[in-house]
Design goal:
The structure is a single chain. By secondary structure, the chain is mainly β. About 4% of the residues have low confidence. The longest helix is centred in the first third of the chain and has 20 residues. The protein starts with a helix and ends with a strand.
């Protein structure tokens, strides 16, 4: 079998897998190993990786921070996600930049974002991000891209209860004119309940215009001495169970996790965050 024929076969196989099983670009999964370990919940959490999940969640950050994230879907390098983000607190809010890359040379998706988040009161915060999204299909098929945005809010209803809402691409911009191909819109709403300084639970619902059902996710986290963390989560979708572990040492936080798909097995994740 020639190299070109082999590449074409691999490309066809991966596109079929992405279209019928993974829907990688349509899923818009939350970024961060902490989030993955808790069932991929994100919208009501105040966390560094909300720079990509719900920008309102970084409005209270007071340190310059940078992070890297890696996920291997079902332990396949061709289905891996790589993410980088930087946030910088200023006197008028928090600024940041994000970068996501999914796939490999024959099929890949890229998202670059610039964000701004601000707290308007002790109980309400908001964030917005401008995105450029590009999909590339092999070296001979070119690429298509477009600009869209995402916006999120969070509110501390009480000292222990936070609600959050986030929407990505509400205007559903086109990725290509062929077949009126549009980037889906994603809506999330959730709550986080801090039972104590060491233990909290969170649950959220997601509606993706590319999928019919509403997905419900939930997660738990327990911390030991604010240094070590255990996590678990669930989802009503195909990713039915997750677990994770994290630790923080001075300026570094490291998290690892794994998400269980009901038919395709585990997907491992790892992330590091540096706070200066």
């Amino acid at each position: 079998m020639s190299n070109n024929l082999l590449k074409a076969f691999i490309l066809f196989f991966l596109i079929s897998l992405l279209s019928h099983t993974l829907r990688a670009g349509d899923e818009m999964l939350p970024t961060g190993s902490r989030q993955a370990g808790m069932g991929r919940v994100s919208v009501a959490i105040t966390d560094f990786w909300n720079s990509q999940n719900n920008q309102a969640g970084i409005a209270l950050m007071d340190k310059i921070s940078a992070g890297v994230y890696y996920e291997s879907r079902f332990s396949l390098n061709q289905l891996s996600t790589k993410s980088v983000a930087v946030v910088v607190p200023t006197g008028i809010g928090v600024l940041g930049a994000t970068f996501n890359y999914f796939g490999y040379s024959l099929y890949n998706e890229m998202k670059v974002g610039l964000l701004y988040a601000r707290s308007f009161s002790p109980y309400f915060r908001m964030g917005v991000q401008l995105d450029y999204i590009q999909t590339s299909l092999g070296s001979d098929y070119g690429s298509k891209g477009n600009i869209t945005f995402e916006i999120g809010i969070q509110s501390d209803v009480t000292e222990n209860l936070t609600i959050g809402a986030w929407v990505f691409n509400p205007i559903q911009v086109k990725l290509a004119d062929y077949a009126d191909e549009k980037i889906p819109a994603v809506f999330r709403f959730g709550i986080a309940w801090h039972f104590s300084d060491h233990f909290f639970a969170t649950v959220e619902a997601e509606k993706n215009t590319a999928f019919r059902p509403i997905i419900v996710r939930g997660g738990l986290e327990y911390g030991f001495n604010e240094r070590f963390f255990l996590r678990t989560g669930f989802s009503s979708g195909q990713e039915i169970f997750s677990m994770g572990f994290g630790f923080q040492i001075k300026i570094l936080r490291f998290d690892i996790s794994a998400v269980m798909h009901q038919s395709l097995g585990f997907s491992p994740q790892a992330s590091m965050i540096f706070q200066f």
